[in-house]
Amino acid sequence: MEFAELIKTPRVDGVVLRRPFLPTVEGTLCLTGHHLILSSRQDNTEELWLLHANIDAIEKRFVGSLGTIIVKCKDLRVIQLDIPGMEECLNIASSIEVLSTLDSVSLMYPLFYRPMFQVIEDGWKSFLPEDAFKDLESMTEEWRLSDVNKDYSVCSSYPPLVAVPKDVDDDTLRKAAAFRHGGRFPVLSYYHKKNGMVMMRSGQPLTGTNGRRCKEDEKLINATLRAGKRGYIIDTRTVSVAQQAKARGGGFESEANYPQWRRIHKAIERSSILQESLIKLVEACNDQSHSMDRWLSKLEASNWQTHVKEILTSACLAAQCIDREGASVLVHGTEGTDSTLQVTSLAQIILDPACRTIQGFQALVEREWLQAGHPFQQRCSQSAYSNSKPRCEAPVFLLFLDCVWQILRQFPCSFQFSQHFLVLLFEHTYASQFGTFMGNSASERSKLNLSQKTVSLWSWVNRPQEVERLSNPLYEANCLVIWPSVAPQSLLLWEGVFLRWKRSSRCLDEAYDEMVHIIQYNKELQNKVNNLRRQLAQLETEEAGEKED
Amino acid sequence: MEHIRTPKVENVRLIDRTAPRKAMVGTLYLSATHTIFVENNPETRRETWVLHSMVASVERPPTTPSGSHLVVHTKNFQVVQLLIPQERDAMDVQASLARLSQKYSELYCLSINPNANKEEREESWSFLDLQADYRRMGVPNNLWVSTPANSEYRVCDTYPSELFVPKSATPPVIVGSSKFRSRGRLPVLTYFHQDTLAAICRCSQPLSGFSARSQEDEQMLEAIMKSNPGSDYIYVVDTRPKLNAMANRAAGKGYENEDHYANIKLQFIGIENIHVMRNSQQKISWLVNLKTPSMGDFLWGLESSGWLKHIKAVLDAGVFIAKAVAEEGISVVVHCSDGWDRTAQACSVASVLLEPYYRTMKGLMLLIERDWVSFGHKFSHRYNHLEGDPKEVSPVIDQFLECVWQLSEQFPCAFEFNERFLVQLHRHVYSCQYGNFLGNSQKERRDMGLRERTHSLWPQLWKDRAQYANPLYRADHTQTQGMLRPNTTPYCFKMWKGMYNRMEKSSPPRQTPTDLLTAVREETQQLEEELTNHQEVAPGGTAQPGTKQGIQTRSRNAPNERCSLRPIYKFINISL
């Protein structure tokens, strides 16, 4: 299929663009296969380049022959295009509708995008499981890297290499995989260097209604316990949801078969409920009413903040079991690809200072989300405005980012990155020129050969100028475990995403610049003073030397 | 002293409400002014001090086998929970505290010998000069003049003795207008905007009832309009909900009839009355004391308290007035019922929005001194300094301070002070440690001889200004200039955690950008000094001994340096 067939009117003059916080621009609108472009063709006026993939929904309105298209983006921005001529407007609208909902992976923009910057380090090779394992090997010998999944036959959503207990052979893994949802047998997620405790993750056990058991599965997870020690299983579902799962062949680990494990149930909601929550929240933020009661009641009804609290609470629990109780933990929900990953990745943010660096956070996203098989493409194909029937969309990763932001806000000096990085990741999961978040698993990405055919987001992020932009000026490395407060009054609405296009951030940006300025000036002075001190010391030695002569 | 039945109780536990299993064991002392808890642990010996006048209530839940609990709630939303082994002791402490917290004669500020530091005391009261602030605004001038009408508080005993009125307002107009206003609170100047020549005037409601009118009062408003050359009307802002204002007509009060007053535009804002505000804040303080609320409980509680809605109403009132004055160049007359609560809020918020000076520490002090203290805001009644009518109590100035805080969240570089300054001001409104906020009017304070018997708070705050400074403030920053135009969409308002949830513990201790930046700026200053020192030593010259050790370079990457970078954090003594 050619894009040209889908674009009936590639160009319209005299289009007026209105968007938040920027002056109105009049210019020429162009549609290409992947972009909607508006240019005034004058210097100093910012052009609009909008990826079709970023468009979540459009609305058309007509007043006489003047048409208006309201474009609602997946990054929650809403822009307005006034297009003279009804036919042109209709043509543009229908083209946008088709181009923004193309299902064919082979037509996606990252496959066409050529970088305009010099790739210093190929992001596709920055975070290989082999390298991560080398770090682990330096700390412990109790784990090995298994290639049992090398052709993705044991578990289609796992990467080819996974870390498992050294004493457990591949055959046992295969059998355990057959007992876990989606073949997701328990694998290592995190090793806590301080006390050698570990966090594992998996899919739910397939116990079904008649309480099936699997010796190999029991053996596998018991192999991670020290003699005489008990571990914790954190089931991200409520007891009743976990019970109901039995009827569909799923279930949970019974006390009888897993006597060394204590099971704790949490209440992280299913994907469809999270999506509904996002839609309600965004609707509340867009409400024009000036009534405080209405705003607060809509905010409450969206339940978004409740989800944030629930996820953070579960992550704190996992971290507490490991760090405070000195116990190992297994985390799972149903599939083990959503709430499970929220918990395991946030627990690492709390426990492991390395995850709070720019590189470390990328490694975490790579390890705990991309390699761990979070279905990004399914979850992020629609955002809060879409009118299409939801399929598997859910803001699972966005909620994770929101939780990270909450911790960042509570510990503003403990993260090497600022919220810009989190916002950037949010944007790129929904629409991107990079291939990083394409596909739903390592296996899909490998089939599409993305590492050859697309540019990695990490290649872009890790350039010095971008690293600088994403850095947190207040950062001071610390090796502490940071315990966020999950009290409701400690958790705020993430303005940087949800109010980003609603209220100007100019004053906050100025404050940020001021902060950067204060810190940079301090560093400059430190350098100057240190230089002078050195010179002084040198002079003194010389002088002392002369005297001796 | 006769109120203290048990001056000392041993083996008391101070319970950390966020981690009930962690309690400090120590000794509880009751002094004439404070309840003091001293930890037994010889290494830390932490002390917790609670000023008696800050105590709002002392609850004693049913006795448990381990002893009696006492839960002390302070007026600034802190909670101290004690476990006392003997029930008798607990009852004694409770009874003593109940009396100590309500005794005027033992208010801290009055128990200090006022003549011990006579000069210092007198100096403390001359720290702020209200008249100088009027001069700073350019008043008096050829439009606004000082009137002797209220000397000896003749026309209005709740107003200051010095008043500024339109030049054209004759004494009969002043007196006549005063007679037509509730409690004699006639329209007078509170803020003059030099750029537009528009003014903010304040007063109480007119005694208009259904049909009464006063020629003098009408002339007074006319004179106010004429004092703003080039304008042909004024706004009369009634900060009450219109229904309340109408209801007042039945009692012979009410609002200005637009048919009688030429060239006024009446505007109702809808700030609720003191009773609604009192209940609203009680709900907030109940909400923050819930043990483990769900997010739903919390947001529902926040909504049903109405608190943020009220804060928004006060801020909206200020925005309306400020815009009228600065953008339209129209003078505004503000009133509510008596003109000492909502009017004070609306006028002072408008001043903060209009005038960068009021966003500095000294400016805010002056603003409080003018719009609140001098214009007869009833501090003793509103903040329950003595056991009085509970229906008179209301968090009026709390709301003003919170508006300033909400603004500082939107304009982080615009204020010279940080959140701690506002929290401290709030504390002292209740504490009675200084004489500034005792009594209900200037006349009452004069009659009580407070200037002779107490010290003023302002120089003390000024002395400690380093810890109240906002590191992001720069006098030449764009945010510091001109008028603030805040966004008052509901989602821009947050709950003020620093006021209502200060006690929350965190591990590791909560990091605040303010503290870090303050420390960095202090270090920068030291570096600047050292740099100057070094440069004074000409190249090739010998170094002065000592300059080398000026300060030690602190690596900002070592985790243990954190505390040394934070001189402001005081972990040891918690003074409530």
TrEMBL record, chain A:
It is a peripheral membrane protein. Its main location: membrane. Keywords: Acetylation, Cell membrane, Cell projection, Coiled coil, Cytoplasm, Endoplasmic reticulum, Membrane. GO terms for molecular function: protein phosphatase binding. Transmembrane segments: none annotated. It comes from the Eukaryota. Residues 123-498 form the Myotubularin phosphatase domain. GO terms for biological process: negative regulation of autophagy; phosphatidylinositol dephosphorylation. InterPro entries: Myotubularin, Myotubularin-like_Pase_dom, PH-GRAM_MTMR6-9, PH-like_dom_sf, Prot-tyrosine_phosphatase-like. Belongs to the protein-tyrosine phosphatase family. Non-receptor class myotubularin subfamily. This is Myotubularin-related protein 9. It comes from Oncorhynchus kisutch (Coho salmon). The gene is MTMR9.
TrEMBL record, chain B:
Keywords: Hydrolase, Lipid metabolism. It comes from the Eukaryota. Residues 124-500 form the Myotubularin phosphatase domain. Residues 533-559 are annotated as: Disordered. The active site is at C336 (phosphocysteine intermediate). GO terms for biological process: phosphatidylinositol dephosphorylation. GO terms for molecular function: phosphatidylinositol-3,5-bisphosphate phosphatase activity; phosphatidylinositol-3-phosphate phosphatase activity. The keyword Lipid metabolism applies. Substrate binds at N273, I274, C336, S337, D338, G339, W340, D341, R342. This is Myotubularin related protein 7b. Residues 544-558 have a biased composition (Polar residues). Belongs to the protein-tyrosine phosphatase family. Non-receptor class myotubularin subfamily. GO terms for cellular component: cytoplasm. SMART domains: PTPc_motif (SM00404). Transmembrane segments: none annotated.
